[in-house]
Amino acid sequence: MNRTPVADLTDGQQIDQVFRAADKQLRVNRQGGKYILMRLSDKSGVIAAMMWNVDETMFESFQRGGYVHCHGRTQIHNGALQLIVTDIESIDESEVDVDDFERFDANESDRLMTRLGEILRGLRNAPLRQLAEVYLADENFVARFKKAAAAVSNHHAFPGGLLRHTVDMMELCQLVGPRYPQLDADLLTFGAFLHDLGKIEELSCDGEISYTDRGQLVGHIVIGVQMLGEKIADFEKNGEAFPAELRLHLEHMVVSHHGQIEFGSPKLPVMLESVTLHHIDNLDAKLWSYTAAIQTDVSGDGNWTNYTPSIGRKLWKKQS
Amino acid sequence: MNRTPVADLTDGQQIDQVFRAADKQLRVNRQGGKYILMRLSDKSGVIAAMMWNVDETMFESFQRGGYVHCHGRTQIHNGALQLIVTDIESIDESEVDVDDFERFDANESDRLMTRLGEILRGLRNAPLRQLAEVYLADENFVARFKKAAAAVSNHHAFPGGLLRHTVDMMELCQLVGPRYPQLDADLLTFGAFLHDLGKIEELSCDGEISYTDRGQLVGHIVIGVQMLGEKIADFEKNGEAFPAELRLHLEHMVVSHHGQIEFGSPKLPVMLESVTLHHIDNLDAKLWSYTAAIQTDVSGDGNWTNYTPSIGRKLWKKQS
Amino acid sequence: MNRTPVADLTDGQQIDQVFRAADKQLRVNRQGGKYILMRLSDKSGVIAAMMWNVDETMFESFQRGGYVHCHGRTQIHNGALQLIVTDIESIDESEVDVDDFERFDANESDRLMTRLGEILRGLRNAPLRQLAEVYLADENFVARFKKAAAAVSNHHAFPGGLLRHTVDMMELCQLVGPRYPQLDADLLTFGAFLHDLGKIEELSCDGEISYTDRGQLVGHIVIGVQMLGEKIADFEKNGEAFPAELRLHLEHMVVSHHGQIEFGSPKLPVMLESVTLHHIDNLDAKLWSYTAAIQTDVSGDGNWTNYTPSIGRKLWKKQS
Amino acid sequence: MNRTPVADLTDGQQIDQVFRAADKQLRVNRQGGKYILMRLSDKSGVIAAMMWNVDETMFESFQRGGYVHCHGRTQIHNGALQLIVTDIESIDESEVDVDDFERFDANESDRLMTRLGEILRGLRNAPLRQLAEVYLADENFVARFKKAAAAVSNHHAFPGGLLRHTVDMMELCQLVGPRYPQLDADLLTFGAFLHDLGKIEELSCDGEISYTDRGQLVGHIVIGVQMLGEKIADFEKNGEAFPAELRLHLEHMVVSHHGQIEFGSPKLPVMLESVTLHHIDNLDAKLWSYTAAIQTDVSGDGNWTNYTPSIGRKLWKKQS
Amino acid sequence: MNRTPVADLTDGQQIDQVFRAADKQLRVNRQGGKYILMRLSDKSGVIAAMMWNVDETMFESFQRGGYVHCHGRTQIHNGALQLIVTDIESIDESEVDVDDFERFDANESDRLMTRLGEILRGLRNAPLRQLAEVYLADENFVARFKKAAAAVSNHHAFPGGLLRHTVDMMELCQLVGPRYPQLDADLLTFGAFLHDLGKIEELSCDGEISYTDRGQLVGHIVIGVQMLGEKIADFEKNGEAFPAELRLHLEHMVVSHHGQIEFGSPKLPVMLESVTLHHIDNLDAKLWSYTAAIQTDVSGDGNWTNYTPSIGRKLWKKQS
Amino acid sequence: MNRTPVADLTDGQQIDQVFRAADKQLRVNRQGGKYILMRLSDKSGVIAAMMWNVDETMFESFQRGGYVHCHGRTQIHNGALQLIVTDIESIDESEVDVDDFERFDANESDRLMTRLGEILRGLRNAPLRQLAEVYLADENFVARFKKAAAAVSNHHAFPGGLLRHTVDMMELCQLVGPRYPQLDADLLTFGAFLHDLGKIEELSCDGEISYTDRGQLVGHIVIGVQMLGEKIADFEKNGEAFPAELRLHLEHMVVSHHGQIEFGSPKLPVMLESVTLHHIDNLDAKLWSYTAAIQTDVSGDGNWTNYTPSIGRKLWKKQS
């Protein structure tokens, strides 16, 4: 089946092909009429789509994150292309060419996971090294970590983004830590490994990245501490106790890494390592999101991006 | 041994009796001289004390929270009575009349714990009732809960204060919950029970109330979630799974009860019950601390307390 | 005349029937063309309507809050139904079936007013009881109180909402007050009665709820104090002076009930009763608005409402 | 009786003379001992004084703001002179030379009140002119206005300060108003007259300036609106109604003059005149308090004052 | 060529005439299609315009701020008139009647510049008078000052607005300064002259007012200090040194005039003159922008403007 | 002359030796008596000192930062040692052994300056390399840079601290820059060199570190831009223009390095390099001040420092 990538769709085009249903909502007018508002995607992009006059059976007939065969027609509305769907049918993953839809770069994640393992296994602190092995031996954890995103819409908001952010931070810790003799570089690096792991449970990457119930009710900081508790329990199954104070330090690295109470850390960083971790997290996240704002900017003004509300400024984008 | 209660000490009095060492700090002048700054207490009050020209051996010779026999002399400094200690010796609890020193009201805590049990056992939600039994069956938990404080210096800052605050809130929940049919009153009441339990580990009540290492590094909100996890694990040991969604709701009640991110809750309340819990917590805590500010006020102005910085205002104290 | 309720209107329908003109604005394009933007309502709902190419005579020919007979046609714009009016004519209330338009539940308001009277007459404080009688004897006040709203768009934003909010708070005060012996429960309950009465003058309920000039220039807190002054003057007409200190306390309850300066109270609560009143107000208002956000949510996601900007979060809406 | 002015007292001096008791507090040590902390003043200054080992009868034997004959001795404590009182006796105003104690400049207040009357009688708006006459005909009002302070410790914190601030602002309004044709200069000037009149009731100038109960419970903004209501009632006693909209505007000028909600105005300024009034108030108050900070500064650094916490900065004080 | 002014354009009109290209952006759909979004202006107003399916050559074929001959058709979209351009061609200024396009009032600017010169030459401080001559002798400076705007979208956002704001403030300084003997009125007035001169370089008035690169990277406060440095260097070329302390004072007036750190002043005002300058700036800017909000308001509600987000309120607009 | 180092002084010691007058203030009691409050220092520490009953001649007889021979006696006041001076005499530097007083480590500053030169000369960007040579060729600049402090009381508050902070940041830039290919590492590193150079003029290191008039009136950010302007003028003296855009970028690095408006940067960072510079500055400054808080902490609690108000927390200080 020969399909047109989303990025190549144009106005007034008849559509008869497969998309991924990245998001779907059943909307109701005050007048009682129902329609489905969808976001249909493939690897090349995403397009808003509407299907009018539907009922709940129709809405339930396909899954968020699943594949759908659509008939309809594109149109331009307010200067943006959208798709009016007249017919939609759920189809099985086996019937689609998954390469058309997958934005996740498995090779890159494999490479990063290998690098992450090297760093962790190179730590001098034995309990941390052994605890790392507990994490790395958990295949389900590793598989989910590889595909996790670091955010819904902020920095590293793509499948694999959490791993990328984590490894970049660990590498920075390896550079910065030794510059300050007062820092325990192993604790710092292990903190970078741990700090956002709760996002594996906080965010769902099926379809569009979105919060899970657990993510919204409990949040990745507390989840990360819970996950650490499970891994330490596994560690201790072979009879050796994990050092109690080190456990508090690891929990503290996770709990305080947002740096300030008003950014969602229930405790301020009170160790030199947690202070440093917060700043390195901040630097890597800001650089990623600002770079992305520059790369995706479409304004015609050669030197400056459009004003980006989430950043509160325009950015200089001209190549020197 | 006939001792003078702290509240009855006067200026220029020779001292030769036992105190409790509520707090002790080894201080160092820039000139290198060391002295001990202590707070010595009995049931009737607390007095600041200094011992000059000491060494670390002296400082280590008695414990914070332990009993000490002191020689010295009182004096007034800046209008406040203090004690200059010339000799100090640690003595065993067996040698003192504990009744002279204990502010904790065991009978009141027993009464409150009984009331707490009644309320929990009266819930209609079976898993919550059974989970309550797991908590109540843990004798160590019950014993520590009875003596725990709710704060170092804010509301309910005394041994037994956490239990008092918890039961008062649960009773309010029993009154307010049924007024709003949209609320799950059982979840609300159980949330009141759980919300501050992490303070049992966050605060130490030996000597003066103070933060534990775990309290400062991790904080009572995360500790409370960890404790809940242990109790649910106990619950599930007899083979029955605790309802997964209910667990998230309980965790959420703990995580969000400060009501706003900048007050230390890593997630905002997003359930009607967690919103209500936050407001009831706020009401009970504010009323307690404002009432205490009025009761302890020593200003001679009949209608108004002195300005209380932690409250940001003077309070009307005249009895109508 | 057989009219279609607003809630049953559909796309492309010819309209020839009566509406209530809930709101009207004369808008001017930069190009100088004028049009009327209206909100037309009946009991079942409200619909946006436009009438193009009008002059000021046309705009002045009907009243905000009055009844109008309209010709026109419905259409869907940006997914929402709207009405393009081609002809509009003011008609007298005598010509319409008021039952089609009235959202106000007079029976409920009668019931609540009776309850309010019971509570006030049950107070033990004689001057407060007598002052209550002055309010209740003012028929104009009672009539306007019954129909008043508590807000334009926040909590209890409907005719009768102020009374509902007031009685709910007074009932809470009756429950909470006796739990804290340090509180004067009568003062607390009377404060709940008084706290928002200024909204009777601050808001107009003709047509859509909106601010009066006095409401915008002076505000309900100051108006409430002014109203209290008038009622105390009436009280004193029979020769007895109202207790001076009690008057200050009542004024303070009104002035401080927003709880913080930045929320519009020119003075902080400095009495235990005013502190309590603020928290009870906050609890009832928040529960109402959060419940309304859940009830009116139209998102198709079973567990969560859409993000509500005024609340700053999504709410859990699944029934447990 | 030959007395030494407070400003001329030195260390180690025997005291046997009259002071004014500017402030008095009965303080209690935890040890139960009571002492009186006083501030004793005359025209030349104020000195802190303590009287040890007193009872409540002693404390009640003289009045705040009254005259007392004291025996005692001066001493330097922490580099400041204080007075240890051994005997104190209340004496009648008739027995003292009031000129030794009065900081209030009656001539200056008379001059300013005359100027204020000229400005008000020069307004072109007839109802405002007539309303001004109602205020000026109230002898009690005029007498209290002349002696009122504008603040406890901020700007214009002295008897007569309110009048000075008011007239200075009215003169500025006379200059600034005509520069902006869009302003109603009469409304602006009358707003300057009204804006702080509530302080006459908010602050007491007997002894040290302090808040009255009414001031703390209700605040000068609401009091000012209440006073305006009384004066308008007087105005209308001769049968003529005061213009309703103008009344709202005057109330609004008072209510909004702090300029922002968080500064204690329950409504924002929404008229050009109230916006202007706020800025002129701000300018005059800031200039007064900064000038006072420079004049009273005692630091030895020729160019800069000490850091002033209420202002958040050091000020340049060198004469150019 | 007979052209229709922008203010007189109506729906469905064929267009074949010249506009000024006030702004232009090249926009890209996700689908890769490019279009130009323009704002086309003449003296009478501005209209949004779109040209679909363009390439970069087309976009580069005319300049922002230049003149263009357009073919196309007007249409109403969301109630606002816009222009769909089908053909666009850059034309030279010599071919247009500049009077049709120029909003700048040269006569008014000449008048204001004369007045500014009078004030500066009337100062008693000789070095300030001489420094003023250096500025006024710089023809390029004078020419650019006359046409500069004071803001992009806030107060005085039009060519000539900076001069208007500057002279209005200087006149206020001449009135207010002498009212306060503690002020150096010359320094105050010269500060008003200097305070916003950096905006001449910060903003570009070609086409729509917009920030220059230097404006966005460095900002008018720092630019103003740089400009002052250049002028003082010119001053000193004839061998006389400018007084060093006075230079610091002038720099301080520029640096601190926003009044608070969070408003962009890197230093707080610490001189009475800089405090006063800030308040006068604030008053003039606020009055201008509030007056403009009233004058341009198009709501049909006689007493109130629409809510203006930048001001955070509705304004009373009824003429008393 | 055999002197006792400040760190070795004890209570009740007769003093007859030389100190450095780190700070001096002439204080005046309300009673008109004058005294000098001094801080006397040598390399080992600093001690507060008072001289009573002085006149201005005495105060002027020695210089802040100069050497003085003092007679007097030590005493303990409020637990801190102080010196009551009875006689003081200014003496010339030639008469003292400067080694007793100098905290500045000239060798370390030489080493750091060499390293700084290496880094700057290793940049690939030719104009930056040449501009660096202009700075390095200015001997006065180099000499003052070597001795400058980075703050009065915050991080790196010692002579030589600015150089230490600058070089540490440049080294971090050398490590971090290459990790992010989107960064211009040369611009980043040069920005680190420039960012705080204005502090050379903002702070005076004679005696105690303190602000200069220029520092308080203008501030180091603007001064840094002024210094850059002078160096670029020197650069251009040999006929070559410095690249205009690069100049704006350098100015922007200085102007924006505090990262947020409310921290004193008049412009936000809008380049990836300025964003990065801010984070690296923050990291190095925070680590330094937190490490210093740990090192200088004197509390006897083994795990935690005392609460440090400037940091808003206690810090974990136990060595793991």
Automatic annotation (TrEMBL), chains A, B, C, D, E, F:
Provenance organism: Rubripirellula reticaptiva
EC annotation from Swiss-Prot or TrEMBL: 3.1.-.-
Protein's UniProt keywords contain Hydrolase: yes
Listed GO biological process terms: rRNA 3'-end processing
Pfam families assigned: HD (PF01966), tRNA_anti-codon (PF01336)
Database matches in CDD domains: HDc, YhaM_OBF_like
Domain HD/PDEase: 158-295
GO molecular function: hydrolase activity; nucleic acid binding
Alphabetized InterPro entries for the sequence: HD/PDEase_dom, HD_domain, NA-bd_OB-fold, NA-bd_OB_tRNA, YhaM_exoribonuc/phosphodiest
Keywords attached to this entry: Hydrolase
Keyword Metal-binding applies: no
Organism lineage: Bacteria, Pseudomonadati, Planctomycetota, Planctomycetia, Pirellulales
EC top class, as a word: hydrolase
Name of the protein described by the UniProt record: 3'-5' exoribonuclease YhaM
